[in-house]
């Protein structure tokens, strides 16, 4: 997504699973609703917003026009005052850019920051409660997951009379771009830029810490049954690489492929990482046929990664990358 500043008179970004979601999940996280919600934006979506145009300046001038992940061009005539978010990652981003006080509705899976627990719930990744959106007088609605299509976004825009923006980042770079999109749409463009800069700085710090270290091979389990992992095109794969690892599933060329246990045994990863919502514990791994002989199991290098950090494409993603890096390269962080 390219940020372009220009004067305009006064769209939506798809989520990662259905990616970034059903957008870091459409094809990917389709098997587990809980994880899709954790992802906040889903595994395979429409991609990142490609172009954003706003009135010159950084004070949130309106109108503002942006193109979201679904390829829709959305013009927001006035600064939004009542925002609803259909993805935990977007909700976190709204609070992080300084628009938290405008948020009036969230999903049933939103739990961070603490303030969201007191907000009205307006649906989950499967459905939007249009009646509640209307009752809350929502003027800006962020979509993700199954809503990451142009058709569904247009339908909800007509039903709710709110501006609709889809946020569905698939790659780590797109996650960084998406926080600026959220900030711009919500009237906090400077907050969006500053958040992106902080996230980029945190990621650079991790990369510099592991620079020059040997890259251990890694397998990341998204789900246990069927066995599902991450590959190129997913922000979790990008996180493994940034953290100094070599993903054994990198040659699948799929964002969230199913993976055979036999191939895991054959490739024998140095580390075996489990998403905390995978349904599998480190103790379960050794009980699978052939897994007891994996290098990761024999050397005690099976670890759980907090899904709220690594599977939600939002402000805390760099923390997830760091958690993985500290697992793969503990010596690089021992002095802290």
UniProtKB/TrEMBL annotation:
**Start and end of every Fe/B12 periplasmic-binding domain?**
82-332
Per its UniProt record, what Pfam families does this chain match? Peripla_BP_2
- Which residue ranges traverse the bilayer? 21-40
Q: Which family does it belong to?
A: Belongs to the bacterial solute-binding protein 8 family.
Annotated GO biological process? cellular response to iron ion
This protein is called ABC transporter substrate-binding protein
Q: Which InterPro entries match?
A: ABC_Transporter_SBP, ABC_transptr_periplasmic_BD, Vit_B12_bind_prot
Q: Which UniProt keywords apply?
A: Membrane, Signal, Transmembrane, Transmembrane helix
Cross-referenced SUPFAM superfamilies, in alphabetical order? Helical backbone' metal receptor
């Amino acid at each position: 997504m390219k940020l372009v500043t220009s004067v305009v008179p006064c769209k939506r970004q798809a989520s990662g699973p259905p990616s970034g979601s059903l957008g870091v999940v459409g094809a990917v996280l389709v098997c587990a609703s809980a994880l899709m919600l954790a992802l906040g934006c889903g595994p395979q979506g429409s991609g990142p917003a490609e172009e954003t145009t706003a009135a010159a300046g950084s004070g949130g001038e309106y109108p503002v026009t942006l193109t979201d992940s679904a390829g829709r061009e959305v013009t927001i005539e006035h600064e939004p005052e009542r925002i609803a978010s259909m993805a935990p990652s977007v909700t976190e981003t709204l609070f992080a850019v300084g628009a938290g006080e405008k948020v009036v509705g969230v999903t049933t899976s939103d739990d961070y920051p603490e303030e969201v627990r007191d907000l009205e719930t307006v649906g989950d990744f499967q459905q939007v409660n249009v009646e509640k959106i209307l009752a809350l007088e929502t003027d800006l609605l962020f979509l993700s997951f199954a809503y990451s299509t142009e058709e569904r976004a247009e339908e909800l825009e007509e039903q709710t009379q709110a501006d609709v923006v889809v946020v569905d980042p698939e790659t780590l770079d797109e996650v960084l771009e998406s926080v600026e999109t959220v900030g711009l749409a919500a009237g906090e463009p400077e907050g969006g830029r500053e958040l992106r800069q902080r996230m980029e700085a945190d990621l650079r710090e991790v990369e510099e810490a592991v620079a020059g270290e040997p890259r251990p091979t890694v397998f990341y389990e998204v789900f246990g049954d069927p066995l599902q992992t991450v590959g190129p095109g997913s922000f979790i794969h990008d996180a493994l690489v940034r953290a100094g690892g070599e993903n054994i599933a990198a040659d699948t060329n799929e964002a969230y492929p199913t993976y055979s246990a036999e191939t895991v045994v054959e490739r024998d990863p140095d580390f075996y990482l489990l998403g905390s919502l995978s349904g599998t514990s480190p103790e379960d791994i050794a009980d699978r046929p052939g897994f007891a002989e994996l290098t990761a199991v024999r050397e005690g290098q099976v670890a759980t990664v907090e899904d709220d950090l690594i599977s939600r494409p939002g402000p805390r993603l760099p923390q997830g990358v760091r958690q993985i890096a500290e697992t793969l390269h503990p010596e690089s962080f021992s002095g802290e």
